[in-house]
Amino acid sequence: MDSHPSFAPSGTQMQVPGMLDANLRVRGRVEYAMDAKLPGMIHAKLLRSPHAHARLVSIDASRARALPGVIAVITGPDLANRDDIYPYYGPIFRDQSVLVMDKARFVGDPVAAVAAIDLDTAQAALDLIDVEWEELEPVLSLDDALAAGSIVHDEPPRLGQTFADIIVRTEANSNICNHFKLRKGNIEDGFAQADHVFEDVFTSPPVQHVPMETHNCVAWWENGVLRLISATQMPFSVRAQLAEIFKVPQTRVRITVPTLGGGYGAKTYAKVEPVTAVLAQVTGRPVRLHLTREEEFVTITKHGMQIRMKTGVTRDGKIVARHSTCYFNTGAYADIGPRLIKNGGFGTGGPHKIDNVWVDSYAVYTNLAPAGAFRGYGVSQAAWAYESQMDMIADRLGWDPYEFRMKNLLNEGEPVMTGEPMYDAHFKDLLATAAERIGWDANVKAVRHGNKVRGKGLSVIIKASVTPSTSSASVKLNEDGSLQILSSAVEMGQGAETTLSVLGGEVLDLRLDQVSITHPDTDFTPYDQGTSSSRNTYSMGTAVKMAVEDIKQQLFRLASDDLEVAIGDLEVFRGRVQVKGVPERSVGYGDLVRKARAGNLLATAVYASNGGLDPETGQGIGSVHWHQAAGAAEVEVDLDTGRIEVLKYHAGVYAGRIANPAQAELQTEGNIAFGLGQALYEEMIYDGGQLQNGNLADYMIVSIEDMPRQISLDVLERHESHDIHGIGETSLPPCMPAVGNAVFRATGVRILDLPITPEKVLRGLRANARPQAHVQEIDA
Amino acid sequence: MTAEDTVAGVTARAVDGDGRISITLQVNGREQRIQVRPHHTLLEVLRNELGLTGPREGCGVGMCGACTVLVDGRPVSGCLLPAALAEGHELTTIEGLEGPNGELHPIQQAFVDHTGFQCSYCTPGFILTSKALLAEQPDASRDEARAYLAGNLCRCGSYVKILDSVMDAKERLKG
Questions:
Q1: Predicted TM-score (pTM) of this structure
Q2: What is the number of CB-based contacts under 8 A between chain A and chain B?
Q3: How far A50 CA sits from the closest chain B CA (Å)?
Q4: Which domains does chain B have, with CATH numbers?
Q5: Span A30-44, mean pLDDT?
């Protein structure tokens, strides 16, 4: 039998399965937010704007309210008239209203909400709401936005309480939502040192996260407390926003989060919760809102992006200057865009040692669906530019892309683009392994086989984790020696709860069945900034370990009295405190808890990372540690049809210490699936502001048949490192440029605009009939 | 018209005051008589009327397979099939695979042992489709399994370990 061996962390008695509740999951019995049923629960539907940009002239819901089975209808103007509600939300700018009050800013902007006894009735009621719109000139592209002929937000955005790392720089009478600057070294001097300067423009389209479980929540009011069961990655952010909307203390909002059916960034920050909570308040009943797939597509997206990148190199292959101008299309509402442009902006510096870097990165409002956090967080867009350009430079100068990278990748201690030294640098190891696994040969660009041609591509990326950030955890050691972890980490398929149980349990050398962990409940589990940014295993994991370490010290103090030895002579072993190396002189945890008459031992720990960037120069501490990954692809391109098949893909990622091997592999394989989709298929196609392919019949995501038949992984571990690197996103951004570079090597066609479709490749083949150098012909 | 008239093989039903008809479904070996609206899909009825939460809506248009139900052993998208048309067929959801005390089916056990999932939203669909595959092709190759499972989408991208699970389940079923 070829079953996955369970993992035993060294020096512990633990046997770690891939997922603690695997048994429930394969039986279809794990509960998602959408499975919650409450007595008297009613169902909500939203009426959405059919226009990209339109002033709301009038809205009349009286016919809908009269429909039997309708409990309540609320409209934007209803909210504007309520003094007890602050009807705006957004994690940085409060630029999104619970329902449209003045004007709609994208096709799908909700303007009214119906609550009815069943979905059929709610749906029927939508047709009975009469809305009059006055269409306005829509802002449909970055060019439209920058021309500023039409303005998406007429007034400067309302600021609210936000995160410590946010830098805000807005402009009046403009569609510029935020501007991030990075100024490292002297850019003029840098380009003066360069022997060659290259300038290229790269674009990425908006794409959607497509979590299989769409956004949903149930809200109800109980004794003046707003309760929610929500599929969110950020219970505390949602709680804060709801408390602000209803003008109540945060203690009057309680959010519980069951396991999520995928998130990938889509479920960060308030989305469906505000309108559902208002409906629950108005009706006095539990209300469920569960978006359809079509609605999901316009709820939040990855930023469409355009980057103009100018890079200067010396004739011996050193990069000496890079100037990037980045426009991130944040859509109708800012969401977390004002922060994302920072990470995407400084991300254009790449994993290279470049002394002179200048970045202007803009979040730009348009009348498209809002863009926000998306697995990769701006780095996918940045890496698509710089890793494509690395190969373009190498090709123009006749260099080997592998050697060109090796010459420029950061070494230990060299400054990253934000100025701080790179620690624990593994870029070169990751690239070397990637090249070896894909069978990189500098002398063979392409191998032709009849009408099909094969080529290989490489890429390496660097990614930050949000810094500074805060996680806290509480733990209880019970009278039987079992350990309970109270954490607000959201389990969304990444195995957070399993991994945190391992990290907590191993401090006390417990078996996994002696450890339990809660789902988030904002009344009981302590604060966490959110399950995002690949931060959970590191940040929450550190908080959990610190709290359990505190328990261990309490046990040592108790055992020191009991065993009459100094604390320094004690150790833990399989649920007991013992004199080092003397198992016969030991006492069980439970005995110590009982003797202390404590009921349980308690500990709480807060882990807060430090850092932040200077607002004028973008220099400082950009990340508590830097995530590192490499990718290598071998593709086969059909020269008659342009069809691309990825035959082989290798993903390398630095993990520090691996806490759960099965999950480390799954996350990395998942990044390959996510990345290849964005490389080859995924694109939200708009026409006049109307999304043309917002459903899974027209929008292609990677299926099992699209996966490369050969996949190799290099989840790089350094055993002596106690530093855990989150790997939920890191191996995603290399995919797109690795494929693009492989397609170029195979065909000589360079695609600058994602995705790399057969049409674009065919067009390139026709335009670019130059013979390929170094093509090896083999017999068909 | 009587409560049930059959015209050219199509059964016409009386509709009650709430617009519902009475239908009888064979679900996981049990006969279930329920009132449904004629346009309600099998997926809606399984979830809302019968409380079976294993089948899940992912796309609503028959593309993702998260709502897969075995209809006489064949995988069908529950979001596309009007519940009334499922009458007279043997329906199996993920809840029907386990033993009376929750004992796992060998395919389920293989998915546990290989961690053939992440968020597991799509897992019931994959397991049911795998069951149909291995019933039709007990010696299915990895490539044949890839082709058969192409109608089930996993956005977490657990595909490698899903295939590992299915190939292992094949051996287990041969026993």
A1: 0.96
A2: 185
A3: 21
A4: 4-96 (3.10.20.30), 106-174 (1.10.150.120)
A5: 97
